[in-house]
Design goal:
Rossmann fold, Ferritin, 17 helices, about 475 residues, 3 domains, alpha/beta
Length: about 475
């Protein structure tokens, strides 16, 4: 069965269930089932390869005990088992004393998960479809989760605020390629969503992997935090299918809920890559967790302050997706930008065109690259152009990674071009830290002063009327002479 057919089959079954209301619930339902299937498949392998491995899940609650048999429990018996036995047992693992790290991961996934299906017969059909058509210990099937993940995210487009935790794959990969993490460096995404940045970082590091120690270093390097249950569940599953067998550093939490002063040297990291939620407001009181000079309820600003605080001194480097509003904004934004130029080297801003985040938002976005241990001397700007023939991006014509070959070929040479220009930190400071610099090489269409245009229009109208009158008189004279 093809991937698209598999997902469609599962969703079509769920649509018949009166308990599942809308795409978001269908996806949440599908993800916890897939997670349990994956975890069970991985456990089969760990039993053979990890000395002394013992499942944190009681035998009767493991997928292979209650779900694997296509003729197993169904109907009301299955719903009763899932709601009243399985879910309470798995949720308890989040807080149970003495539970293993694997158990804590299962508990964190199910902490805020729910079984929305009310028909045990339909639930059995979904379980049988997953069991029959996907084997996550088969390398081919495991790789298909990348596509399952992308397909699920596409389906989330109609489920509401998917843009809060989705970044186009081309953007995440480009950022990781330019940051170029190395084995031994710690990597954090403090608003990791479904784990797109971290997956790309893992793939980048795997190319450097030579020993078992390298593999362990990659496992320990990856850190993420996501406050919403559904993307967190997707992130955990995503990590496991990209070789992070124990994604204990992918936490279900709000990074901003911890006071800034409580973060110490051990919390600092080498690399931060993220697309924080922008345009949103944090709940009352969250802003008090930061320093007074950064206090605002605007989420993106709070994340920017946190990122600047968490990067290691002298060696830390970061990349962040931010809207145009941050570039020209004032108040707390001005404070952040001043410190960014004084204490960091804000070396590059890639200005993306409209539509990169379609259909989630049409807001113009930018990629800011910086390293700790400034100050900044010059900021290079690069305006990313549309491909030939494009006027915008769309679901059928998204941004592709090959388009960033322009930036990659320019990156280490840093020459002024039709797309690239630089502005001194001194000029930016004199301009009150406004970073909203437009491409000086682009020919702007000048429409002129409105009052002058109106005067010109009235003059042309008068002249046209005069010519019309003259033509009319000539015609009358010509007809009269006959």
């Amino acid at each position: 069965m093809s991937l698209a057919t598999l997902i469609k089959t599962i969703q079509d079954i769920m649509r018949k269930d009166v308990g599942v209301d809308g795409d978001a619930q269908r996806i949440s339902q599908m993800v916890w089932l897939i997670f349990l299937k994956i975890f069970d498949d991985r456990e089969q392998e760990w039993m053979l390869t990890v000395r002394g491995y013992k499942s944190p899940i009681a035998t009767r609650f493991r997928w292979s005990s209650w779900a694997k048999d296509p003729e197993g429990i169904t109907g009301d018996e299955l719903i009763d088992f899932v709601n009243n036995e399985l879910f309470p047992a798995l949720k308890k693992l989040a807080t149970q004393a003495g539970v293993s790290e694997h158990g804590k991961i299962v508990g964190s996934v199910f902490e805020d998960a729910y079984n929305y299906m009310k028909s045990g017969t339909l639930l059995r059909q979904v379980i049988n479809t997953i069991e029959r058509d996907v084997d996550f210990n088969a390398s081919g099937d495991r790789h298909t989760f990348n596509d399952i993940y992308e397909k699920i995210l596409q389906d989330l487009q109609s489920a509401g605020n998917a843009g809060e935790f989705y970044t186009p794959r081309a953007v995440t990969r480009f950022i990781v390629d330019m940051i170029d993490p190395k084995i031994g460096e710690s990597i954090l995404d403090p608003a990791c969503g479904t784990g797109g940045f971290l997956v790309n970082a893992i793939e980048h590091l795997k190319k450097q992997e030579k020993t078992h120690e390298d593999r362990l270093a990659i496992q320990n390097a990856i850190r993420g935090v996501e406050k919403k249950p559904l993307p967190h569940m997707l992130a955990i599953t995503n990590m496991m299918l990209h070789g992070i067998d124990l994604p204990k550093n992918i936490r279900h939490d709000n990074t901003l809920s911890r006071p800034l002063k409580d973060y110490g040297p051990k919390d600092r990291v080498d690399i931060i890559i993220t697309n924080p939620p922008f345009g949103g407001m944090e709940e009352d009181g969250i802003e008090k967790n930061t320093l007074k000079k950064y206090q605002t309820r605007e989420t993106a600003d709070l994340f920017m302050a946190l990122i600047m605080h968490l990067l290691k001194h002298d060696t830390g480097r970061g990349a962040i997706v931010l809207p145009d509003g941050f570039l020209f904004g004032e108040g707390v934004k001005t404070t952040l930008k001043r410190e960014l130029l004084e204490e960091f080297n804000l070396h590059t801003i890639v200005r993306l065109p409209k539509g990169v985040f379609n259909p989630y938002t049409g807001i113009n976005t930018n990629l800011l690259f910086f390293s700790k241990g400034g100050p900044t001397k010059d900021v290079w700007f690069f305006e990313h152009p549309y491909p030939d023939g494009y006027k915008s991006y769309s679901k059928s014509k998204p941004l592709s990674i090959t388009e960033f070959d322009l930036e990659k070929s320019w990156w280490n040479k840093r020459k002024v071009s039709e797309y690239a220009w630089k502005v001194s930190a001194k000029e930016i400071a004199e301009n009150n830290y406004n970073l909203d610099y437009k491409n000086p090489h682009r020919v702007e269409v000048k429409h002129g002063d409105p009052e002058e245009l109106m005067a010109e229009y009235l003059q042309l109208t008068t002249e046209l009327k005069s010519i019309q009158d003259e033509l009319k008189n000539e015609l009358i004279r010509a007809l009269g002479s006959d």
